[in-house]
Design brief:
- By secondary structure, the protein is an alpha+beta fold.
- It contains 5 helices and 8 strands, in the order H-H-H-E-E-H-H-E-E-E-E-E-E.
C-alpha cells in the first residue's frame, strides 16, 4: 500500500527545466525593467540633447554670419540718408536691394555650413561656400562619426541629481540638417533725445534640425537673431523744443542769434 502511494506521488521537475524557467523569467523581468527605465529617462535625455543642439546651432549660425559679414558688409550700404544743404541728416531709410542681397547670402552660407557640419566636416566660417560639397572622396567612417558628435551627455544627468550628473555612460548627440532654412531682415528705428536716431538691422534665421540619439530621434526648429547693422544718427538740434509734448512742460525757443550785450 505504501509502495503504491510512493509511486503515485509527483517527482520534482528536472534541474534543466528549472533553469530554463528561471532564465526566461530573468529575461522578461530585465526587458520590462529596461523598458520602464527607458520611458522615464528618454524624455529627459532628449530634452538635454535638444538644448545642446539648439545652442550649438545658434553659435554656428552666428559665427557663420558675423565672420563673413564683417568682411563683406558695409553698414552705410544698408541705410540710405537724406541730407539738407548744410550736410545734416534729415531722414534715413533702408536700402531694400542691399538688405535682400544680405539675406540671400545668409541663406546660402548657413545652408552650406550646417550641411558640412552635419556630415562631420569642420568648415571655416570665413571661407567662401560657392563650391558644392565634394562627396567623392573616401573618408574614415569612425572619424566622421566622432566629428558629428556635437555633445556627449552622461546618463546621470537624467536623474536630475547634481552628485550623479557626471556618472554613467556618455550618450552621443548628433544632428542632421533638414535643409529648410529661412532668413528675414528685421529693421528697427528708435529715437533718443531730440536729435538722435538709432537704426538696427537684425537677421532672424530659422532652421529645421533632426536631433539623433542612439535610441530616438526628434525634429526641432531653431530660431535666432544675428545683428548685422547698428548705427547712431546724430541730427541737427532743433531751434524749438516742446519737452516731450506732454502739455504741462513749457515750450522753449532757442534763439538763433546771440542776445545783444548790455
Amino acid at each position: 500500500m505504501g509502495r503504491n502511494r510512493r509511486k503515485g506521488s509527483m517527482a520534482p521537475p528536472p534541474a534543466r527545466q528549472i533553469f530554463i524557467i528561471t532564465f526566461m523569467f530573468f529575461l522578461i523581468s530585465t526587458f520590462v525593467s529596461l523598458w520602464i527605465i527607458n520611458k522615464g529617462i528618454e524624455p529627459k535625455i532628449m530634452e538635454i540633447a535638444e538644448a545642446r543642439t539648439e545652442q550649438f546651432a545658434k553659435e554656428a549660425i552666428a559665427e557663420t554670419v558675423s565672420k563673413k559679414m564683417a568682411e563683406d558688409l558695409n553698414v552705410n550700404d544698408l541705410v540710405q540718408y537724406t541730407y539738407d544743404d548744410q550736410g545734416n541728416v534729415v531722414s534715413a531709410g533702408f536700402n531694400s536691394a542691399a538688405i535682400n542681397k544680405v539675406t540671400r547670402d545668409t541663406l546660402f552660407r548657413v545652408n552650406q555650413y550646417l550641411t558640412r557640419l552635419g556630415e562631420g566636416e569642420d568648415p571655416d566660417p570665413g571661407i567662401s561656400y560657392d563650391v558644392d560639397i565634394d562627396k567623392s572622396e573616401e573618408t574614415n567612417t569612425d572619424i566622421v562619426q566622432d566629428k558629428r558628435t556635437i555633445a556627449r551627455i552622461p546618463l546621470g544627468q537624467a536623474t536630475g541629481n547634481t552628485l550623479l550628473s557626471n556618472l554613467g555612460p556618455e550618450i552621443p548627440v548628433h544632428f542632421t540638417y533638414i535643409g529648410n532654412v529661412k532668413a528675414d531682415a528685421i529693421k528697427e528705428e528708435k529715437e533718443y533725445g531730440i536729435n538722435m536716431l538709432v537704426v538696427d538691422i537684425d537677421l532672424r534665421v530659422e532652421v529645421n534640425l533632426q536631433v539623433l540619439l542612439p535610441f530616438s530621434t526628434k525634429m526641432i526648429t531653431v530660431n535666432t537673431e544675428v545683428p548685422i547693422a547698428h548705427n547712431v544718427i546724430i541730427g541737427k538740434v532743433p531751434d524749438f523744443y516742446n519737452g516731450g509734448g506732454g502739455g504741462m512742460n513749457p515750450s522753449i525757443e532757442v534763439p538763433t542769434n546771440p542776445l545783444p550785450g548790455p
